[in-house]
Amino acid sequence: MMGEKLKGNYNYQIGNTVYDYYEELPLQTPPQAPVRRNRKVKKRDFRFAIQVSLCGLLVFLGAFFYIHQYAEFGTRQKELRTIKNEIRDTKSTISLTEAKISEKLNLDYIRERASKELGMSEPMAHQIVYIELPKDSYVVYNH
């Protein structure tokens, strides 16, 4: 078929010493006997395929587990950094509040503010009255 198509475009001179390559040669295929495989070989191949599949599955599961744990670890680290920052901010706020409280409870500060801003003065001896209270009438703290 292909030789016929090409022969139309090809000018072969009869008696030439060159072989005509465009002649169709008959195809000769040797008869093939069906290949029979032993059942034991088939079982062995099937077992090998199962083993390879299981190994592939184990590798996949191992990789999946590793990636999952790595992502979980990153998330936990981010949460830990956030919590540490919150703790640092809270400690800073506590220190600032303690400083303000200690400033407000400082007796020298109270006396100074009372005398300068409020115009108060210490009581004189005749203005002080001492009273006696029974022990049951007030709360006693155990330190």
Describe what you observe in this structure:
- With 143 residues, the chain is mostly helical.
- Helices cover 58% and strands 0% of the residues.
- The relative contact order is 0.03.
- The model has no long low-confidence stretch (mean pLDDT 81).
List keywords for this structure.
143 residues, mainly alpha, 3 helices
Residue share in β-strands: under 5%
Round the Cα radius of gyration to an integer and report it. 52 Å
**Mean pLDDT reading:** 81
The SSE string, one letter per element, is HHH
Per DSSP, the total helix count is: 3
Q: Which regions are unreliable across 5 or more consecutive residues at pLDDT < 50?
A: none
Which geometry do the CA atoms define? rod-shaped
Helix-and-strand structural type: mainly alpha
Describe the largest sheet.
none
Number of strands: 0
Helix content: 55-70%
Amino- and carboxy-terminal Cα gap: 116 Å
Short summary of the structure?
The chain has helices at 2-7, 39-105, 107-116. By secondary structure, it is mainly α.
Furnish the topology, listing elements before pairings.
Elements: H1 2-7, H2 39-105, H3 107-116
